[in-house]
Design goal:
Order of helices and strands: EEEE
Radius of gyration: 13 Å
Shape: globular
Number of helices: 0
Strand content: 35-45%
Strand order of the largest sheet: 2-1-3-4
């Protein structure tokens, strides 16, 4: 709910031991709306090119976590964005 109320305004990970959390987020049509490292900058519900807020709806992510020992793990999932 990225609506500026200070509660759930960003999509991030609290991955203990992770040194990188690269995510790509897609809308329901498979168009990329965001790409970046969630450890350095949580996603605030804005399109990565225009900076405009993306609409409410279902989004899908591909997340690559890197730990401090050089191990990588891939994760996928979905979430619903509501403002």
């Amino acid at each position: 709910t990225p609506n500026g109320d200070g509660i759930n305004d960003g999509f991030d990970v609290g991955a203990v031991g992770a040194v990188g959390a690269w995510v790509v987020i897609y809308n329901r049509w498979g168009h990329k709306v965001h790409e970046g490292d969630l450890l350095t900058r949580p996603w605030k519900g804005q399109h990565h090119k225009s900076g405009e807020p993306v609409p409410d709806g279902e989004y899908y992510y591909v997340l690559r976590l890197d730990d401090n020992e050089g191990n990588t793990s891939d994760h996928t999932g979905s979430f619903t964005l509501r403002r």
